[in-house]
Specification:
By secondary structure, the chain is mainly beta. Helices cover 9% and strands 44% of the residues. The chain has 4 helices and 25 strands. It has a single domain, classed as Beta-galactosidase, Chain A, domain 5, CATH 2.70.98.
Length: 362
């Protein structure tokens, strides 16, 4: 049963009080207007708990805006939701279309740095986040006394004589809750074995991060990606104030998990006025996504910390291939991935989450 405004309601009790569920929450398709985002298909979610977020079928069904009671927790770049037709693939040009946002998906056959892999030039982070969804379905319905809302669709990465991979995604939320679920199925519908790299680029921003905010995780070890990340590596978890000229630092984490394989990480700010605390968590399964990269970018105006569960690292497909990490999908093979994101809006919620992470590390 949803909890709304401090009270729990059955379906019958709630419907007796509203003309339509949309009075307190729901999901609706919209289209963006103006500039490079003109015409981009989007879906607006409100859960009645204070959670509001936007999923974007026009951009790989990623999640851009995310806020709770007016407090944003996703980082936004100046690019915004640029239409996929502006995507420029070579080298680092992916960054020209990168809106930041709560979740940007990287893959499906390539993720990480630009490289040349077996003679094929690959750009940064692949194509899926710039692929509009097809077969989009937006709806909500009661499941007993609970009301679930969702949008789902399919993104296809294909070419003649090459890959033919489909990502089927459902983004959902529950009335009265401050959680988001992403359920993905990736299937090789082509006739040949295909490389498969998949990474959730989850981008936390102010005020979830600020000077003194912390990245909370069941980390057993954190390995710097390069010499830039060697700087103050002992404090990988601690956010600095916005710093002009800050060079990004990436760390590869070995995470502890619970007996079912679940890992919990979060970005938490305990230094808000009046003793308030705020942040958000990510829950994923290590059996599905065995690797994790932390992206610490504490630069002025580029002020973000990324939590990135994945099946790959971020140095490019050629490096993963040489290291023996590169994953493949056989013809007809499917892989499932499941992500849960949730708001931590009170000291009690923060303390309970921290205790859970401590128990994984014990």
């Amino acid at each position: 049963m949803p909890v709304l405004f401090g009270k729990r309601y059955t379906k019958a009790e709630l419907l007796a009080r509203v003309g339509d569920v949309s009075q307190v929450g729901g999901v609706r398709p919209v289209r963006l207007a103006g500039g490079k985002g003109d015409g981009v298909e989007a879906v607006d979610f409100r859960t009645g708990s204070g959670l509001h977020f936007v999923a974007v079928p026009g951009r790989g069904l990623d999640i851009t805006i995310a806020e709770h009671n007016g407090m944003p927790f996703s980082w936004r770049s100046a690019t915004g939701e640029a239409d996929a037709r502006f995507f420029d693939e070579p080298g680092l040009c992916w960054l020209r279309n990168f809106p930041g946002g709560l979740v940007t998906t990287c893959g499906l056959t390539n993720a990480g740095a630009p490289c040349v892999d077996q003679g094929e030039a690959l750009g940064l982070h692949g194509r899926v986040s710039n692929t509009p969804a097809s077969n989009v379905w937006t709806d909500g319905e009661w499941e007993g006394d609970n009301y679930r809302m969702w949008v789902q669709g399919k993104m296809r990465e294909s070419r003649l004589f090459g890959e033919n991979i489909v990502l089927k995604r459902r983004v959902s939320a529950m009335l009265g809750e401050s959680k988001i679920w992403i359920d993905d199925v990736v299937t090789n519908e082509g006739p040949r074995q295909t490389p498969h790299m998949f990474l959730y680029h989850i981008n936390g921003g102010w005020p979830a991060i600020d000077g003194g905010s912390v990245f909370v995780s069941p980390t057993r070890s954190a390995t710097p990606r390069d010499t830039d990340a060697e700087v103050d590596k002992e404090h990988y978890y601690l956010m600095e104030p916005p710093t002009p000229g800050f060079k990004e630092r990436c760390y590869y984490h070995d995470m502890a998990s619970d007996p079912d394989g679940f890992v919990y990480t979060a970005l938490i700010n305990k230094n808000l006025p009046d003793g308030r605390q705020f942040g958000f968590y990510v829950k994923y399964n290590k059996n599905e996504l065995p690797l994790f990269t932390q992206w610490k970018q504490n630069g002025a105006q580029e002020y973000v910390c990324g939590m990135e569960p994945a099946n790959c690292r971020v140095e490019g497909r050629s490096v993963d291939r040489e290291a023996g990490r590169l994953q493949f999908l056989e013809p007809g093979e499917s892989r499932e991935y499941h992500i849960e994101l949730g708001v931590l809006a009170t000291p009690v919620e923060v303390a309970e989450f921290e205790d859970k992470v401590k128990s994984l590390k014990a």
